[in-house]
Amino acid sequence: MKKYFLAAFLLLLVFQANAQSRGIKIGYIDMEYILQNVPDYAEANSQLEQKAQKWKQDIEAKKIEIAKLKDALKTEKALLTRELIEEREEEIKFQETELLDFQQKKFGPNGDLITQKAVLVKPIQDQVFTAVQDIAELKKYDYVFDKSSDLTMLFTAKRHDISDQVIRTITRAEKRQEMTKKQLKAQEAKEYQEDVEDENPALAARRKALEDKKALRDKQLEDRKLAAEARKKEQDDKRKAAAEARENKKTGTVSANDNKEGEVDETEKAVDGTATETPKEDKAAAKAKIIEDRKKALEDKKKKILEDREAAKKAREEKKTQPKEEPKKEE
């Protein structure tokens, strides 16, 4: 192990010396980080982890079953014959052997978990290797290491980490399969901009500042547009109300809005002498009551007039039937 570590250390020193003397460009990736951030792998790995949890539950259940067999044997051992004790001990041993075999089959060095994970990782690794080669050729890298491999890296500067570029390359390839030609052209332009910004962080910061300013301007314009629309609507409502009022004045009618308060005053003053508003149902009832009261008052007045006329007529007739007084004689 020490020899391996020393060889790796010397190799890094050689690379560093060559980089300083000949301008060699070195980068690295973190395979574990890349796998965690590739959607296809993350989803498949989650399903595999669910399987592993089920296997672990089966193992725990088997351990509990074996423990129960041991406890039962310990409790009943004094009552059992030697043959029965040996038979139960043999059964317990068989169960333990079966459990160990199951553990090795699922979680051993060549078990299902390792095998299925290797099958799962293989296509992603192939994509990573292809992406690394493309990036290395495009950006003139001489060496690209895997940080998560057995190679011990004593120090790694973040600016040499191309893991995010690899993830972007893999994601881009998946997106391209579903794009039209026009979308593909726009995507290529966007990718070119991102690649340029990777090489020049100051350019990325400047682009972000411009995008923030543009977003702020767009928001201000949107706010002004909404305010102008609100003012226009308010003016339109006022003009419409004024035109309606003029038209009603010409025709001698009153609009629903103008007549609303008048109806409230007329009905409620007639009912209780107040001018407070009532619901529409109460207004209708009050109006009907007013009409009924007026009708009754007219009938009563008419009846009284008729009664007065009848009384006057009767008085005249009685006066006519009374005998006339004879004039007094003079002495």
Labels describing this entry:
Chaperone_Skp; signal; 2 strands; two-stranded parallel sheet; Skp_dom_sf; Periplasmic chaperone for outer membrane proteins Skp; mainly alpha; 331 residues; coiled coil; elongated
Provide structural commentary:
With 331 residues, the chain is an all-alpha fold. Among the domains are: 2-178, no CATH class; 258-310, no CATH class. Helices cover 79% and strands 2% of the residues. The chain has a two-stranded parallel ribbon. Helix 3 (39-76) runs antiparallel to helix 4, helix 7 crosses helix 8 and helix 9 crosses helix 10. The longest helix has 51 residues, at 201-251. The radius of gyration is 51 Å and the shape is elongated. The model is unreliable at 260-264 and 266-278 (pLDDT under 50).
Q: Which descriptor suits the 3D outline?
A: elongated
Mean pLDDT across residues: 77
Q: Write down how many β-strands occur, each being a DSSP E stretch of 2 or more residues.
A: 2
Q: What is the N-to-C order of secondary-structure elements (H for helix, E for strand)?
A: HEHHHHEHHHHH
Count of DSSP helices? 10
Strand order of the largest sheet: 1-2
- Note the gap between the termini: 180 Å
- Provide the gyration radius in Å: 51 Å
**Which stretches are poorly predicted, pLDDT < 50 over at least 5 residues?**
260-264, 266-278
- Helix content, binned percent: over 70%
Strand content: under 5%
- Overall SS class: mainly alpha
The major sheet is characterized as: 2 strands, parallel
Region (Disordered): 177-200, 221-331
Biased composition (Basic and acidic residues): 177-193, 221-250, 258-271, 278-331
Family: Belongs to the Skp family.
Protein name: Periplasmic chaperone for outer membrane proteins Skp
